[in-house]
Design goal:
With 571 residues, this protein is of the alpha/beta class. It has 21 helices and 14 strands. Bound molecules: FE2/S2 (inorganic) cluster and magnesium ion.
Length: 571
């Protein structure tokens, strides 16, 4: 092992080295500061992020592993984002969490880091931070909750809420039964057990090479998670010895494999913005088109809610990500390495499928061509996404009259109005929900359908929005429209009554309007007054600097890496 980064603080006999060591001693072994790797445990445990509340126990196992391998474990509390509580949307704070973790890793005497995340934004923000500070880093995903069941059938996190609440509005489920299902849905520690964003990002992080292969998807209450955490603590020490930093093993090939995995698991559309942002930190040229090119012909092999039937506990039992990737071995880039130093594909030889209902074979996929389709057109010049596997086949090619809403409040105020001029063929358009407009790009694109249409039995409609949607949601939803209305995108020019054409096969989303008429239009005042205009604080910084969804919605000045050097002393 060469000289450790932490030796810049601890080595020598001078006054400064004294200061750095003396305050850190407090019972740690006397040789702690002479050549032993200092391993931060970036821990997003928080009572207000219930999906991550158990990570203190995971951290304790990591500590044991670090000590055992000769390192010194140091817990670093990280900004924690709970998807269900944090307003106006956890996404507004993802870049702030990433910036805070990046700066604290750089500012402190740290040689490597174990990243503990779970709930949606936590793994992405930790990986963005680790990429920009470029110290050896490895993720332990906190793992999903156990399966929920209600009235004899599986009840998945998020997906069940959307489904049951529509049933209440349609009059087929009582309020009382609805409320009673709460504790059936959330019955253990861990993150959402559907193939929502948390599950997706844990698995995608493994496909990317940042998790010990085979670990992602281990349920949060499973002892094997603690075993893996212990092992990962040891590995972090080895990674420092080998100088295995993100810049040394994360390449375009890693992202290629992540996109294949994202498609095969039927993963969340949110993974697109997160992967673009992580790649941006690494200086890797990744574009929206890579997602369509690499992912859109990949079969969906995993039958998990929201696209399918099962939940993460079933997925883990059935063989997990490695079993999925083994089926798709020829689509993977064999060059891509992992945190262990070995290529991802070297883990696929012994990765059988144990339950062919949950994980399908290549020969019998759940959906022949999955992935995420990237649409363009005069309504989304820089791109928009749709997840065809979660959409209704009969709507993938559709022309309908727009019913436009200028904000989510406008939507809620009018959607259930019996006089609203809307039918099953209408296209619901919601704007002002992009990164700048809301701000933070909330998960509102899967707008609830008008009550009067639900009562007629309508269960899906084409929806178009510049926001995101929950990874647990489903429907024919065109989202992440870029540029967003608040950034001057043409979505801000649509008027109720205009015709919108969606053609997923042709990858088009268009407003049926002559180019000169579109060019003449300006957004009306009701539209623009809805856009966020914060006076101060993070929100102001965010609105002034956030990039659009098609490049990852990072802040412009956070793209790239500053490395781990800090030139100046503190005293
Ligand atoms: Fe935390 Fe779904 S709310 S993972
Ligand atoms: Mg704590």
């Amino acid at each position: 092992m060469g000289t450790l980064r932490s030796a810049q603080w601890y080595a020598g006999q001078d006054r400064n080295a004294y200061l750095h060591r003396a305050w850190m001693r407090r019972g740690v072994p006397s040789d702690a500061f002479t050549g032993r790797p200092q391993i931060a445990i970036a821990n997003t445990a928080s009572d207000l992020t219930p999906c991550n509340a158990h990570l203190d126990e995971v951290a304790a196992s990591v500590r044991n592993g670090v000590y055992e391998a000769g390192g010194i474990p140091l817990e670093l509390p990280a900004v924690s984002l709970g998807e269900t509580n944090v307003r106006p949307t956890a996404m507004l704070w993802r870049n702030m969490a990433a910036m805070a973790t990046e700066e604290m890793l750089r500012a402190n005497p740290i040689d490597g880091v174990v990243l503990l995340g779970g709930c949606d934004k936590t793994i992405p923000s930790l990986l963005m931070a680790a990429a920009s500070v470029d110290l050896p880093a490895v993720v332990v995903p906190g793992g999903p909750m156990l399966n929920g069941t209600f009235r004899g059938s599986l009840l998945g996190c998020g997906t069940g809420v959307w489904r049951l609440s529509e049933e209440v509005r349609a009059g087929t489920l009582s309020q009382e039964q609805f409320v009673r299902s709460e504790s059936s849905m959330i019955r253990s520690r861990g993150h959402c057990n559907t193939m929502g964003t948390a599950s997706t990002m844990a698995l995608v992080a493994e496909a990317l090479g940042t998790v010990v292969p085979g670990v992602a998807g281990t349920p949060a209450p499973d002892s094997r998670l603690l075993e893996a955490a212990h092992h990962t603590g040891r590995l972090a020490v080895d990674m420092v010895g080998a100088d295995r930093r993100p810049a040394t093993f994360l390449t375009k090939a890693s992202f290629h494999n992540a996109i294949v995995a994202l498609a095969a698991i039927g993963g969340s559309t949110n993974a697109v913005v997160h992967l673009l942002a992580i790649a941006g930190r690494l200086g890797i040229e990744l574009t929206l088109d890579d997602f369509d090119r690499v992912g859109s012909r990949v079969p969906v092999l995993v039958d998990l809610q929201p696209a399918g039937r099962f939940l993460m506990e079933d997925f883990h039992r059935a063989g997990g990500l490695l079993a999925v990737l083994r089926e798709l071995r020829d689509l993977l880039d064999p060059e891509a390495l992992t945190v262990t130093g070995e290529p991802l594909i070297s883990y696929l030889d012994d990765a059988p499928i144990w339950d062919g209902e949950v994980i399908r074979t290549r020969a019998e996929p759940l959906v022949a061509e999955g992935g995420i389709a990237v649409l363009r057109g005069n309504l989304a010049p820089d791109g928009a996404l749709i997840k065809p596997a979660a959409a209704s086949p009969h709507l993938l090619r559709h022309r309908g009259r727009a019913v436009v809403f200028d904000s989510i409040e406008d939507f809620h105020a009018r959607i259930d109005d019996p006089d609203l001029d809307v039918d099953a063929d209408s296209v619901l358009v919601l704007r002002g929900c992009g990164p700048k407009g809301y701000p933070g790009m909330p998960e509102v694109s899967n707008m609830p359908l008008p009550e009067k249409l639900l009562k007629q039995g309508v269960r899906d409609m084409v929806r178009v929005c510049d926001g995101r949607m929950s990874g647990t949601a489903y429907g024919t939803v065109v989202l992440h429209v870029a540029p967003e209305a608040a950034a001057g995108g043409p979505l801000g020019l649509v008027r109720t009554g205009d015709f919108v054409t969606l053609d997923v096969e042709a990858r088009r989303i268009d407003l049926d309007l002559p180019a000169d008429e579109l060019a003449r239009r300006t957004p009306n005042q009701a539209t623009t007054t809805g856009f966020a205009n914060p006076a101060r604080g993070w929100e102001r910084l965010y609105v002034d600097h956030v990039l659009q969804a098609d490049t990852g919605a990072d802040l412009d000045f956070l793209v790239g890496s500053s490395g781990s050097d800090v030139g100046r002393e503190s005293h």
